[in-house]
Amino acid sequence: MNAFFSRGMLLTLTAATLNLAACSDDNDADEVAPAPEVTTVSNLAPAAGGSTSTGQPATPKHYAFFNLATNKEVPYTDSASTKWDIAVRATTILVNGGTSGPGKGQAQVVEGLFSTLTSAPETGYQQDGATKAIPTGSGKGWYNYDATTHLISPIAGKVIMLRTATGNYAKLEVMSYYKDAPATPAATTPSGYYTFRYLYQPDGSRNLN
Amino acid sequence: MRRLAFWLFLASTPLAATAQRPLAPDTTVRRLALREVVVTATRTAKALTEVPIPVTVVGKEQINAMGALRLNDVLGEQTGLTIVADHGRGVQLQGLNPEYTLILVDGEPLIGRTAGTLELSRLAVGNIERVEIVKGPASALWGSEALAGVVNIITQKPQPGTHGNLRLRYGSNRTADLGATFNTKGKRLGLTVFGNRYSSAGYTLRPESGTATVPPFANYTGQARLTYTLGEHTNLSFSGRYFWENQHSTLPMTGEDGSTTDVQLRGRQLDYSLNPVLTHTFSQKLFGTARFYHAGYRTKEDYTYTATGAPYDATYFNQTFTRPEVQLDWQLHPQHTLTMGGGFLTETVSATRYDQRQRMYSGYAFAQDDWTPLPSLNVVAGARFDGHSQYKGQLSPKISGRYQVLSWLAVRGSAGRGFRAPDFRQLYLNFSNPTVGYSVFGTHQVREKVAQLAEQGQLARDGATGELLINQTLLDQASSLTAESSSAYNAGVQLTPGQKLTLGINFFHNDLRDLIETVAVAQKTNGQSVYSYRNVSRAYTQGAEVEASYQLLPGLTLSGGYQFLLAKDKTAIERLKAGQVYRRDPTTLATERVTVADYGGLYNRSRHSGNLKLFYQHTQRGYSASLRGIYRGRYGLQDRNGNQLLDADNEYVAGYWLWNVAASKTFRERYTAQLGLDNALNYTDAANISTLPGRLYYASLAVNLGKP
Q1: In b/e form, how buried is each residue of B683-698, taking b as 16+ CB within 10 angstroms?
Q2: What angle do CA B240, B242, B247 make, to 5 degrees?
Q3: Which of A181, B107, B374, B495 is most exposed, with the fewest beta carbons within 10 Å of its own?
Q4: Pairwise CB contact (< 8 Å): B643 & A54
Q5: The dihedral sign for the CA sequence B159, B165, B170, B176
Q6: In terms of Cα–Cα distance, which of A162, A174, A159 is closest to A110?
Q7: ipTM exceeding 0.85, yes/no
Q8: What is the pLDDT of residues B394-433, one digit of tens each?
Q9: Which chain A residues have a beta carbon less than 8 Å from that of B641?
């Protein structure tokens, strides 16, 4: 039994209440660690930031911070700690390292299928700096922006390889940028709501199978 | 009398070499006398049934029976031709985009393309004798742009006597067309004049968008040709054309704060041309033509705020094309006819997005041997060399042959090279987007402009090494841009079993190289890129075309055509094979690899297209009618799942039929009334097809003046 979830269970987090399944804290040391599980997170988004003078929703004030090991959102007040691994706001994804935080976080975007990328690359990771480890901009990182429909679509076949705040490896794929991941989002669908799946390897190895 | 008229007609045709030389007293003369003659395939007059390459001819009678007004109406109903909309309506031929088809008027190119498309509705058809469509590359004779084929519009030549006609047509969307022709020809002097006004209130398919799909416009065409017989063997012809169009529309502009402001657009475009042609028959075996052609194309767009009248934006584009050319047709031997020629071309362009007035030069020469080793075998071989001031020279060879196997069966085949020169924007563009901040430079100055930006500190540097973010390989490629080219093969059979049935089949394959695409050569400090162009893409189009025509009753002809087409990007196929293309299921959000089998090919190509037509003509009673069904099979519109290629069902537009019907009656051989209905089933697809306004009614009245 993994620290957090029963086998095959997909956990859903809502933006408002991060409703976590019961976690067992009694992690038996002599228990053989089973293979890490793929976890899907829905609607990770920062708190709304009010509205602009024209009534449009404004950019949220803070990022939504997330811990991959615990599968929990972390309050923004902990942003200067290593309690979080990634943070999202609008189309930007931060990793906890470099200019973004005190952790060992690094990332790179690789091409492939999430399921068949079974080991993390040894090299090629970047820290957040003047440019982000997960590049921003249409077609440069994880998403495309359509100037006609004004929609943000995660690019199929782009997988984000991560080193977490503590230096462990993980892989992550963004699946939707819209609230409740509708099949055909409209320009008016609330955006900035990340649905993603990830696999976190707690043992420090690059094995992501 | 009719034959005499024909000989006079040919004598006044600059390209009518065969008229001057002795013809074997076989069926050729009879077929020529039936006017089934084409000049575009070999640059000499040749019977349509005997040319070794696929050619379609649409004559005046058919154009009238269709109730066609503009060139796009005519071309859109032909087998293997599809009207596609991209910065105007152009023609797709053998699956290739409009920029690969050369459009000629009486053998001289029409200029003024926008993003590669020459707006076909600029051409009125009221004075057209016939339209010739050559399929497959013809660069060996016609040079650049004749990569997919050539459309040559042959206008009316002065005919003996004095006569004219007036024609008025009115229809849906307040579309009005008023045209007049005048013809006179005496012993030495001949004149034709054509005038046309065409206007429409336009139409709006999506009222919610706030803009008209086609805003109101009015355009005017004037064309004239003067012919003069200088001597027994020498003829002079002088033609001119003038066209202008005004369009007016309101566009809601959305500002950065989300508010909208109405902006008025006043657009004006015009084109003109002058074309003196001198022909001389040196002997029965040698015929010469000297031509001069000057053409101009201008557009001007003024945007002003509706509320205040203050200027919002203004753009202009001015292009000229000047070329002298000579051609000799020499019957070297009873079995060999040589055609040789050469010319010198100067083009200029000045526009809002170009640094200064740009000028480029090109010289070319061509030669062709039309060889008839056996009465049943004809081989045409030729080549053309185009030298150019801006890109490397192009040699375009071509060979074609036709063999009459049986009296009712002929086979033909051809192989040739086609090319398309980089256009003005690819050569000279100098554009920096003021709001977004990216830059685009043509090949001519990209190196210099990148260096300039580097000097001004506008280019980004690599954080680690401090080097400028310039991709030297791509920059080298961008500054040595060359022409796009193709190797093409056509093979087919022509069948005429019996008097009533004709059947033609043609297979084609076009292998395209060095297709030009946009590339980012450097990064700017503002996070944007510097773009230019490079030759990179490879693609192919291939397919088969079948055409059949059957005379059901005297005067009643049923015809049908079908084209099967595959058009694919070779680079995309390689990426698919390497497993580098992905897509996400929108419902399950699962990502999968796209397979080669999922790939639908290039956008905007219908795998299946065709037509079914019924034409009826009763000359004595003056009745004429037509029913035409045009089918366009489903085609890819745009990428919707982010992988930049056509692979998902929702990326296609559904196929459709358009049914058009027209009927006319001529009274007293002078007055002709016509009623017509286009798109009778009222098919529209407002979301995807802007060029289908729905059902259109029209009525027209034509009056012939003088003795035709």
Answers
A1: eeeeeebeebbeebeb
A2: 170
A3: B374
A4: no
A5: positive
A6: A159
A7: no
A8: 999 999 999 999 999 999 999 999 999 998 888 888 888 7
A9: 153, 156
